[in-house]
């Protein structure tokens, strides 16, 4: 047993809420194994908020005397204030945050404090606490996503004409712009924000009143509690309510996608920061060196974000595995939901913060990026498109462009460096104006389809993203 836990267990003042049926208290090692307060203490204010709503309803419904209801709610507010000020410290001998707060309330109020749990189980209580916590934690995460997108959009707005090769299969494909590429990242993050928003809508029903699994024989006013806590209504089935951890899985799945996107961005940053590419120079504040090689400047923060993606994936698998064989309704396995959920949340939150600083302080090598559009015949499709505009079927034009590529390979030059006579050997439809279409700049600027890399099209994307950020 850890010394910290041993001291907490030996020095604790609060009996377990379920201890009445037992003649003997649990073994110290058993208490350490089952306790969750180290994980769920972050929900203390949410637990208090839910208990205030519940106690208020108990008084209004006449289930407990109204004066006792007022006593309870007033003292709960003071407990919350004392925790925030540091006047009251968490007692880690308590089994969980619910037991701690109820124990403090009872210590302060005596018999009246014991009435706070009337008509309630820890099963519906934790379901409420988690939903209340997520309702304020997820918007914090969404704001951080918008901050990242804002930084990306700001950089993109300065680089609408900064050429950069697009890649497929990690081979040079077609010229785009840095702005176009950064907007691609931004749209991924916008979808991540939307997924979180959708999931928030699904937790906006109040679970309190479901009890252990079958509701209550007391005349609880569930709707009153829901309204006072800002829920749109109450959950529909008491068994489902206490057995449900879909929301933990759904949010962690959304976190996993955020990390997948960050990991992909970081992979590109790592590649682009190499001497071979040198598209980006990371700030020294967001790089590290080597203990043996004095010359090194490593993209460690990008690598750490990429590495921590595995932690979040692991948390998702842990949650899915936790529920896969559980019969209805509540099982103690479900206590394990919070550690995975909170760890995934914390990891995503910190990675978004680091990514924001890392990308926001980076410098871009426009000349190096533009040079990636030269060579590799990434303008071959533009030769085919030129012929299509002349009336040639695309499949035929594709073959003609391939013939021009072969000539360029034989002459060891780029397509745009071929002589007009070389092009006309491939097709008499090709005229001197082809050179206006096959420069890297021309290839990028002529791609004016919606969502394409032409500066005016990227400007529309930037404006759309900016509108979304400002919503």
> Strand share of the residues?
under 5%
Helix content: 55-70%
Low-confidence stretches: 1-12
Number of helices: 19
Strand runs, count: 4
Mean model confidence by pLDDT: 94
Main sheet: strands, sense, barrel: 2 strands, antiparallel
Rounded to the nearest angstrom, the distance between the terminal CA atoms is 51 Å
Organism: Candidatus Treponema excrementipullorum
Family: Belongs to the lyase 1 family. Argininosuccinate lyase subfamily.
Domain Argininosuccinate lyase C-terminal: 377-444
GO cellular component, one term: cytosol
Question: Could you give a quick summary of the protein structure above?
Answer:
This protein is mainly alpha-helical.
Describe the overall structure:
It catalyses: 2-(N(omega)-L-arginino)succinate = fumarate + L-arginine. Residues 20-314 form the Fumarate lyase N-terminal domain. Its EC number is 4.3.2.1. It is a single chain. With 471 residues, this protein is mostly helical. Helices cover 60% and strands 4% of the residues. The chain contains 19 helices and four strands. The protein has a two-stranded antiparallel ribbon with strand order 1-2. The chain has a two-stranded antiparallel ribbon with strand order 3-4. Helix 7 runs antiparallel to helix 8 (178-202), helix 7 (122-158) runs parallel beside helix 13 (337-360) and helix 7 packs antiparallel against helix 19. It is elongated. The two termini are 51 Å apart.
